[in-house]
Amino acid sequence: MTMHPHSTPPHAAEGVLLSACDVVRTYRMGRVEVPVLKNASIDVKPGEWVAILGSSGSGKSTLLHLLGGLDRADSGTVTFRGEHVGGYSQSRLDRYRNEHIGFVFQFYHLLPELNVLENTLLPATIGIGRFEWMRRQGEIRDRARMLLERFGLSHRFRHRPAELSGGERQRVAIARALMHNPDVLLADEPTGNLDAKTGDTILDMIAEQHRAGLTVVMVTHDQWIAARADRTVHLVDGRVA
Amino acid sequence: MAVYTQLLVRRYLSTRIIPLIAVAAVGLCVALVVIVVSVMSGFLDNLRASGRTLMGDVVISYPVQGIPYYKEFIADVLKLPGAAAATPLVDTYGLLRMPYPGGPNKDVVTAQVWAIEPETFSQVTELDRTIWWKPAASPQEALAMAEDDPRRQQDLSGLYEDAKVLRERATDRPGALLGMHVSIVNQRQRDGSYRPRNSMWWMPNHEITVTLVPISEKGTVSQSNSRVFKVVNEVMSGVFQVDKNRVFIPLKEGQELLRLDEAPIVDTTAVPDASGNYPVIGTSPARATQILVRAKEGVTPDELRVQVAEAYEQFYLQKSADESVRTRPPAAEYVSIMTWEQRLRDLIAPVEKERQMMRILFSITYLVCAGLILAIFWSIVSEKTRDIGILRAIGASRMGVLWIFLRYGLTIGMVGSGVGIALAWLVIRNINAIHMALGNDAPPWLYVTFFLLAAGSAALTVRALTRSRILSVLLWTVATLALVGIGTGLVLHRGFLIWDPAVYYFATIPSEMDWGNAWITAVGAIVFSVLGAAVPAARAADIDPVRALRYE
To answer: Which residues in chain B are contacts of A126 at CB distance < 8 A?
Structure first.
């Protein structure tokens, strides 16, 4: 783990896949400005599993959103493979999220109108045009089925999220996140809404993907869960401790 | 465009009730506009078609005194490059003494009498088509006729031939053609056929007495003249006012009754001869009050009207310059030369204006569509805020999100328009049948069905009550009351006619779809649906994905 609370951006840092350097993010709640991140920095190396540990309101989800290009920092830099993510155009940022990042959320965030297979296919249907879809549809569907089968959901292809258990929904969400072979999996409290046993299963799945070479950044407030990661970053009151 | 927009739009449409309500609303708005404007367009088309078929393309008119030397003028007209045929007629109002009832006190009715030359009149108008009693054109028609009016099962060829020459050929008596509704005998059935009210008084078996009142050059009423005519046939033009009032008699008889025929001019200032007769000093020519002209194929009525007006000017100048002519034709400025459309202007113009007004008024329904879709989509976007955040997290662009909702509005507009056009087509095609059904008492099976449905609905209300489901109780109660209301309405319903032919000019409601108007309406509904969706769609595109993901 390398931390640069007040240092220069580690853009050129060797072997760093994704990093945030001195990022500041303040939200406005009515007339009040709430600083959420205060010069937080983090470097993530390829193939690393980093846990961001912090209490509620410490800014860990915000940091994850900045790393994933869902939000832009007020100051500081986020870099991916040495490129300044904050400098991306909107369309390049959309492509970044689609091609390089896989998000997993605490509340699964599946689209209720789509079935399991369609939810899993979603990143592919967003990322490619109609003609490429027509050309590669079979191959893409095969990958989605393969992922779902690997996660034990082969009997659930046509089911809607409402018909699934919490664990099954989270497995679909992970399959969706992996659909496009992302470089980084960003998981925001992936077990926060599950019982301990189901949560362990989900963590096992993430660990399996990590062992296969996937870079994982996981936000949690549970130090036992964070313990499964390669290393832990503590976030306290918007700063890396 | 990416595949996910299509997938989501399809799912949003097929898994939710609200968009179906929007589709139904758009469909009803489109159907409403298309039905109303189609019926009005059909009415206008009928009016135009009937105008042309009843009076040709151009009408030269000089009422009461008539146009002298009309035969010479018709000969001039027929030389015009745009004229195909021309015919003289004398039109006036007169009294008809009908053959019924029995006894000396017969019915007397007023009628518009057209004295015509049947051969040339048929060339200009479509008299032949309107003759009602004629033999079947095909075996199928003969079969249909056999089931129809029993009078049509007899050999009608004699009547038909008599009608074409307006004379009873067997006796060479002058004949009269009556409009279908002039007598009280023919009773129109709802299917458009006729049944005799009293077979004994079937008009082609009888005679009528026509009384006309000549009017002098000074505008005073002269001694009336009457003549008996054999009714040779009846005509059905489809225009109620014509069929109710018009009678055709031969031109020669009409001229004689109105004293518009050729007559000697005597010198009343001279000394009469031994028999008391004044010396004849010339001949007053026969006159026609109207001349109808039909245009050649490809010549518009307006073009023909210009040619006819020039020809009349020449005719007048020529006759005025001729010293030997004692009776001069009226000057061109006193003669009305109009196209059929101009003649019917007082009828056509208000209908055109009404149609335009209807279009504008009903176009407000577009705004209703747009407002409805805006409200529905605003609520959908609020409900789907988190989904929008998810899509953005996975990489969907703002334009992609915008397009989902625009496409959603477009689809609702297109499906709604399609439904509306199909509904309008069904209603318009069957508008006379629907009208006929409204005109009858409701059949028992229909209201019994509604009462059975009401009983079922009441049972569901009770079930919902036992389960303490307030919403279900409310909905099923409303449904029960509505079904009982409809059933009771059907029991109490006594047939009534909305489209009274006496009021609406034509015997049937126009049942042709105005496709041009339908497509314009559909496109308008689609555009306004997209406009209604645009504001919520833009709002969706502007949603911050981070806030959206935290949205509860």
So the answer is: 2, 4, 391, 394-396, 400
